[in-house]
Structure formats: structure tokens, C-alpha cells
Design a protein that fits this description.
82 residues; 0% strand; elongated
């Protein structure tokens, strides 16, 4: 449950950062606001990469197991044929 919470919080932070960058891009066109836009987008990209690596490690170590349609399709595709 903690892993899902971390992923949800990271997604929310990514959306907030994207919104902040959009606000600074549209509202103000000064050099200072341009730097704030770049910082917000850099933070978003960094957080996205960290989240991707975190999910990859969680899947590789078995801390997070996929469930749902994709997992069921993978199980039927790898099931031995009788």
C-alpha cells in the first residue's frame, strides 16, 4: 500500500509542477518567469525519471506486482500448452 501511495503522490507532484510551469509560461513573459518555467519543467522531468526507476525496481524486486488485464494477458500467453 505504501508503494501505491508513493506513486500517487509523485503523480500529483508531477501534475502540480506541470501546472506551475504552464502558469509561469502564460502569465508572465519576463526573464525571471522564464527561469521559473524551466525550473518547474526540470523538476517535473526529474520526478518522472525517478518515478519510472522506482516503479521498475519495485517490479523487478517483486514489491509491486501488476494485476488486471495486462497481467492476465501475460499469464495466459506464458501458460504451458497441454
Amino acid at each position: 500500500m505504501i508503494i501505491k501511495s508513493i506513486v500517487i503522490i509523485a503523480f500529483i507532484l508531477i501534475i502540480i509542477s506541470l501546472g506551475s510551469a504552464l502558469f509561469h509560461l502564460v502569465k508572465h513573459k519576463t526573464q525571471e518567469q522564464s527561469e521559473k518555467t524551466v525550473k518547474a519543467l526540470t523538476f517535473r522531468i526529474t520526478l518522472s525519471i525517478v518515478l519510472f526507476i522506482f516503479i521498475f525496481i519495485a517490479l523487478a524486486t517483486g514489491l509491486f506486482t501488476p494485476h488486471g488485464l495486462g497481467a492476465r494477458m501475460h499469464q495466459t500467453a506464458t501458460a504451458p500448452v497441454k
